[in-house]
Structure formats: structure tokens, C-alpha cells
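Re: [ENG-882] Designed sequences occasionally contain unexpected residues at chain ends

Forwarding the minimal case from QA. C-alpha cells:
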């Protein structure tokens, strides 16, 4: 399937940037929740620590690992089967972490008697996780086990790539809206200064997530043809 011709632009530097910006996002959320918000705990009388598990798992697992799963396909060496297996395994861990991350907010809400699923963030987040689960399941069945016929795989692949990127962008949007919701809650209770180091860190996290999303999407659409490749042969989507 011929697509845009990106000339000699190589995917490699963008892949390296994805790793670096991903690690930056992980570091920022850990500093936020551990240094500024007091740490993480599942069983405690301080329920805030239960809530803190949520942003950490959503960013470390759902965002960071799913970013790695997407770019792994483009850049990692190895057979197609190996790449598919790693892609599927990373996404499975990302999904499991996200489910535990949402369970942490449900636990936090239950222990404090707060209503569930009232905000746009909650709706968008739930929708994203459900779509992510369906995308993972369909990808596993069609491309790994029991694996569809070659023709079926060829037909499904562009949709798998499109829906995968759509769900990924929804995940970044969910994280952004989560940051806005948490900052608004904390500032509404005078628990975070408007121009405090913590507020700036939260803003930096939001911007880093946007940058990460842009780099992942770019790495995914970028083809790296050899100089001899003709424009009509430039292919960005891997074969099924
Ligand atoms: C991809 C990332 C994320 C997804 C899919 C997601 C999903 C969800 C879901 C489904 C809920 C609803 C729980 C309920 O209503 O019982 C929720 C609540 C919440 N999330 Fe996230 N979330 C994500 C990231 C984040 C991040 C990064 C933050 C903050 C830094 C955050 C902050 C919150 C807050 C403040 C609540 C509501 C807690 C409350 O009202 O007491 N979320 N999230």
C-alpha cells in the first residue's frame, strides 16, 4: 500500500526521542505523586495515597508502555513474529496496569463515599480503556493466534493501525484531562499554589505528554526508505 514519501527522513532519531520523552513523563509523574503528594499505598488509612497509584499507573503503564509498543514495531530488530509478540505483550501489560490504575480510583472513591464516573475525564478514560481492550483482543486474534488468513490480515492491518493510533491519542487526551482535573481539585481546596513548583511540574507533565504523543504518531507514520527507493514504493505500514 503506497503512502506518503518522507524521502530520507529516518525513524531512528524519533524512536530515541520517544524513549527519552517517555522516561521524562514517568519521572515527572513519580516526582509529583511521591515527592509532592506523599507517596503510594494500596492499603492505608490515608486514602490520598491510594488515589496516587492512579496517575502513576496510567502514565507508567498505559502511556509509556503503549508508546513503546507502537515504536517497537518500527525500530526493533528481529523477526515479524518476535515483533508482534513483543508488541502484544507490552500492550497487555499496559492494559493490565490501566485496569489496576482505575481500580485504585474506584477504591479511593468507595472508601471516601465519592460518586464514580461523573467527569468528562472519567468517561473519556473508560471509553479509551474499553477501546484499547477491544483493539488488543482483535489484534491478537487476527495477527497472532489463531491468526487470520493472509488476505484477512492485509485487509485488517490498515484499520488496526488507524484505530491503534486513535486509541493512543485518546489515551494521551485522557491523561491530559486527568491532570487538569487533579490540578483543579487541588487548587480548589487551596492544596496547590497557582504558580507553585508543583503546579509547574504538572504543566510540564502535560506538555511532555503532548510531545510524546506527537513523536509516537510521527514515528508510526514515518517510512524510512533507502535512498534508492522510488516515491511510489514508500511504505509506512508494515506487512501483516
Ligand atoms: C490514560 C490515562 C488515564 C485514564 C484512562 C484515566 C481514567 C480514569 C477513570 C476511568 C476515572 C474514573 C474513576 C471514577 O470515577 O471512579 C478517573 C478518575 C480520575 N483520574 Fe484518571 N485516568 C488517566 C490518567 C490520569 C492522570 C494522569 C491523572 C492526574 C494526574 C488523573 C486524575 C484523575 C482524577 C483526579 C480522577 C477523579 C478522582 C476524583 O474525582 O476523586 N487521571 N481516571
Amino acid at each position: 500500500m503506497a503512502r506518503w514519501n518522507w524521502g530520507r527522513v529516518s525513524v531512528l532519531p524519533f524512536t530515541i526521542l520517544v524513549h527519552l520523552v517517555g522516561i521524562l513523563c514517568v519521572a515527572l509523574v513519580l516526582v509529583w505523586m511521591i515527592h509532592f503528594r506523599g507517596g503510594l499505598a494500596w492499603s492505608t488509612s490515608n486514602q490520598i495515597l491510594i488515589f496516587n497509584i492512579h496517575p502513576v499507573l496510567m502514565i507508567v503503564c498505559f502511556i509509556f508502555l503503549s508508546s513503546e509498543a507502537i515504536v517497537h514495531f518500527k525500530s526493533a530488530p528481529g523477526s515479524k513474529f518476535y515483533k508482534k509478540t513483543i508488541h502484544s505483550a507490552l500492550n497487555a501489560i499496559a492494559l493490565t496496569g490501566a485496569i489496576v490504575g482505575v481500580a485504585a480510583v474506584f477504591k479511593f472513591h468507595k472508601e471516601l463515599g465519592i460518586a464514580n464516573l461523573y467527569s468528562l475525564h472519567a468517561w473519556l478514560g473508560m471509553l479509551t480503556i474499553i477501546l484499547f481492550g477491544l483493539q488488543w483482543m482483535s489484534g491478537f486474534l487476527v495477527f497472532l493466534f489463531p491468526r487470520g488468513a493472509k488476505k484477512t490480515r492485509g485487509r485488517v492491518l490498515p484499520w488496526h493501525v488507524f484505530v491503534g493510533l486513535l486509541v493512543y491519542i485518546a489515551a494521551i487526551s485522557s491523561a491530559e484531562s486527568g491532570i487538569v482535573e487533579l490540578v483543579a481539585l487541588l487548587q480548589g481546596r487551596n492544596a496547590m499554589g497557582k504558580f507553585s513548583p508543583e503546579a509547574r511540574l504538572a504543566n510540564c507533565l502535560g506538555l511532555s505528554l503532548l510531545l510524546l504523543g506527537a513523536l509516537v504518531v510521527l514515528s508510526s507514520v514515518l517510512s524510512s526508505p533507502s535512498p534508492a527507493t522510488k516515491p511510489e514504493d514508500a511504505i509506512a505500514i508494515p506487512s501483516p
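QA comment: On inspection the terminal residues look reasonable. Confidence is low (pLDDT under 50) at residues 224-236. Proposing we downgrade this to a documentation issue.
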